[in-house]
Amino acid sequence: MKRVHEDVSVSMELVLFEREEGGFACPVACIHVDIELAAAA
Question: Rounded to whole angstroms, how far apart are CA atoms 1 and 36?
């Protein structure tokens, strides 16, 4: 659960989510994410 809280906190700093009564909302219509995944060493 700690990791989820950290992820939401960072997302809020980036304005990907905003706090609303009873939860969170996404203020944008579309989010494009480029990520690179690598196998653990």
Answer: 24
Number of other CB atoms surrounding residue 17 within 10 Å: 19
Alpha carbon distance 10, 40 (integer Å): 23
Give the H/E segment covering residue 23.
strand 23-25
**What is the DSSP code string of 5-21?**
HHHHHHHHHTTS-EEET
Q: Please state the rounded mean pLDDT for residues 16-29.
A: 81
Please state the separation of Cα 24 from the chain's center in Å: 10
* pTM exceeds 0.70 for this model: no
